[in-house]
Amino acid sequence: MERKGGNGERNSKRLRNRTVSGAGKKSNISLTVNGKIYELTAGKDFKQSSTLAETLRETLGLTGTKIACDHGGCGACTVLIDEKPILSCITLTVECDGKSIITIEGLEDPVTGNLHPVQQAFVDNTAFQCGFCTPGIIMSTKALLDENPSPTEDDIKEALAGHYCRCISHYEVIDAVKELAAKAKDGRNE
Ligand code: FES
Ligand code: FES
Predict the structure, then answer these.
(1) In which residue ranges of the chain is CATH 1.10.150.120 found?
(2) What Cα–Cα distance (Å) separates residue 125 from each residue in 66, 109, 134, 139, 177?
(3) 3-class SS of residue 49
(4) Atom of ligand 1 nearest to the CA of 1
(5) Architecture of the domain made up of 117-185
(6) Which residues make beta-bridge pairs with 29?
(7) Which of 101, 117, 123, 165 makes the best surface tag, with the fewest CB within 10 Å?
(8) Topology adopted by domain 6-105
(9) What phi, psi does 146 have (nearest 5°)?
(10) 68 lines ligand 1 (CB under 6 A)
(11) Is the CB of 16 under 6 A from ligand 1?
């Protein structure tokens, strides 16, 4: 999904900026994923070339994070690393040593099992069809609202630009995030 020129190129660059730094060959790493600490061994749990998306899905069994384009162009694989939205398909697992990662599985209330308000708003607004891109969009939405609980429509478009939904649910996504922003303004979000 490489695009040249115009919004496509800007979006692609924006997404590509969503990486972490600090690569280097390591034999053991520690990741905190959804609050749980995982000690991983190179060669057994991950390869030096493994992406975070692969390790989350194949080693930790967290398949809620999707891999679509697998080269940083669509946003489907977005997770939060130290609270920032990051493309896990172009982030090496070794780069994440010592970092705190939140995936879509980490959003529901661990006690009640209730959906996170962002997830619920997407359900209420039918903001997806096949849902393949949805976990990534929800993670970026969470990052946006954590930073700015009452974003404008332009803020929402800016934060979610570069997330490609092949089912064209973008309008409903914006409705869902606007609803959350309105609730935050009224003090109705938890
Ligand atoms: S950006 Fe990672 S799968 Fe598309
Ligand atoms: S809901 Fe189907 S690709 Fe986004």
Answers:
(1) 117-185
(2) 21, 20, 13, 17, 9
(3) coil
(4) 4
(5) Orthogonal Bundle (1.10)
(6) 40
(7) 123
(8) Ubiquitin-like (UB roll) (3.10.20)
(9) -65, -35
(10) yes
(11) no
Angular region, 70: left φ>0, alpha ψ -120 to 50, beta rest: left
Using DSSP, state whether 65 is helix, strand or coil: coil
**Euclidean distance between CA atoms 72 and 103, whole angstroms:** 17
Ligand 2 and 137: CB distance under 6 A: no
Helix (H, G, I), strand (E, B) or coil at 52: helix
| Ligand 1 within 6 A of CB of 70 | yes
**Could you report the per-residue pLDDT of 130-176, keeping only the tens digit for each?**
999 999 999 999 999 999 999 999 999 999 998 999 998 999 999 99
Question: Which ligand sits nearest to residue 2's alpha carbon?
Answer: 1
More confident: 184 or 37: 37
